[in-house]
Write a structure and sequence with these properties.
Blueprint (H helix, E strand, L loop, with lengths): L1 H10 L17 H13 L7 E2 L12 E2 H15 L3 H64 L9 H51 L4 H68 L5 H58 L3 H10 L14 H4 L1
Antiparallel strand pairs: 1-2
InterPro entries: AH/BAR_dom_sf, AH_dom, Arfaptin_fam
Protein name: Arfaptin-2-like isoform X3
Keywords: Coiled coil, Golgi apparatus, Membrane, Phosphoprotein
């Protein structure tokens, strides 16, 4: 029965109209009943086969329908994903890519920071190592010189000039101390004269019988007070100039001398180290150490010679500056003191003009009422 129905289905024609649409098949009740019977009692479609060579052909091109369904399901799943699953898949890939980039950048930045920190640490260690070695050599050289077992480089002429400078500074410091003491005492005397003049002026108003006498003394004390303030201006200028010469100009030269003495000690220390190595065996290790010591010796020799030249030049200029400054200041001090004690007010004022000294007006040192608030 099945064969007869399949033969009918295979030989049945499908009419097509002029537009390419399929036409309507004529109704055939017997055929419909036969098909329903085949669907109920016929074989399972999942277990049927498709013949590639046409009906009644050989069994070589047979493909199971179950395999075709499996292939179609796989093609549907893998061909075009749904919009939501595709978006999720793309988003997850993007996040994974960004996360990997961020992780890579953070790891690279942390590695660079670690390298920088490690480089700084290595530099500090090397600096401390060099400082320790240099301190050890200099301490050894200092102890050897103190106990008479080591030799030191000496420039007799320069050492004599340095000793003269130190002695000159001590003497000028004593002059500065005495000049400041004179300023303080003279300031107190001027203040006393000012108060005494005010007292004489007050008594001249209250004592009619001694008005003239108190008046003369009041005028004298006020004149002395005025001349004393003028002299104080000259002495203060003298003290300021001596202070600059001693505590700035001489001190700067002495700082350079201190650097020169340290360079001399380092030079002698590395010189002694090179001499000690040169007296030892001449193997490969010792020769390498001798070469390194020779380089260090040359570096410290150049530093020592450069600072020795700087000290020589500064000592020369300091001597010229000292003579120039002290000539002016000693002349000022002599003329001001002589004019004051001679009572020559005009000569005293002329001395201040000669040295361009300007006196502060009375009360200039006092703070204003706004500063006192």
């Amino acid at each position: 029965m099945t064969d007869s129905i399949m033969s009918k289905a295979a030989t049945m024609e499908i009419p097509i109209n002029s537009n390419g649409d399929t036409g309507t098949l004529p109704e055939d009740d017997s055929l419909e009943q036969d098909l329903q019977q085949v669907m109920v009692s016929g074989p399972n479609l999942n277990e049927t086969s498709i013949v590639s060579g046409g009906y009644g052909g050989t069994a070589e091109g047979i493909i199971p329908t179950s395999s075709i369904k499996d292939l179609r399901m796989k093609a549907r799943r893998s061909s075009v994903p749904t919009s939501s699953s595709a978006i999720c898949h793309i988003t997850s890939q993007s996040h994974e890519h960004q996360g990997s980039n961020m992780h890579h950048s953070s790891s690279s930045s942390s590695m660079s920071a670690d390298d920088a920190t490690r480089g700084v640490a290595v530099e500090k260690i090397e600096s401390v190592k060099k400082w320790g070695m240099n301190t050890y050599k200099c301490t050894k050289q200092m102890i050897s010189e103190r106990f008479g077992r080591g030799s030191r480089t000496v420039d007799l002429e320069l050492e004599a000039q340095i000793e003269v400078l130190r002695d000159t500074k001590r003497k000028y410091q004593n002059v500065l101390r005495l000049a400041r003491a004179l300023t303080n005492h003279f300031y107190n005397m001027v203040q006393t004269q000012h108060a005494l003049g005010d007292t004489f002026a007050d008594l001249s108003q209250k004592s009619p019988e001694l008005r003239d006498e108190f008046g003369y003394n009041a005028e004298t004390q006020k004149l002395l007070c005025k001349n004393g303030e003028t002299l104080l201006g000259a002495i203060n200028f003298f003290v300021s100039s001596i202070n600059t010469l001693v505590n700035k100009t001489m001190e700067d030269t002495l700082m350079t001398i201190k650097m020169y003495e340290n360079a001399r000690l380092e030079f002698d220390a590395y010189r002694a180290d090179l001499e000690e190595l040169s007296m030892g065996p001449r193997d490969a290790v010792t020769m390498a150490r001798i070469d390194a010591a020779q380089q260090q010796y040359q570096v410290h020799k150049e530093k020592y010679e450069r600072l020795r030249s700087d000290v020589t030049i500064k000592l020369k200029f300091l001597e010229e500056n000292k003579v120039k400054v002290m000539h002016k200041q000693l002349l000022l001090f002599h003329n001001a003191i002589s004019a004051y004690f001679a009572g020559n007010q005009q000569q005293l004022e002329q001395t201040l003009k000669q040295f361009n000294i300007k006196l502060k007006p009375p009360g200039a040192d006092k703070p204003s009422w706004l500063e006192e608030q």
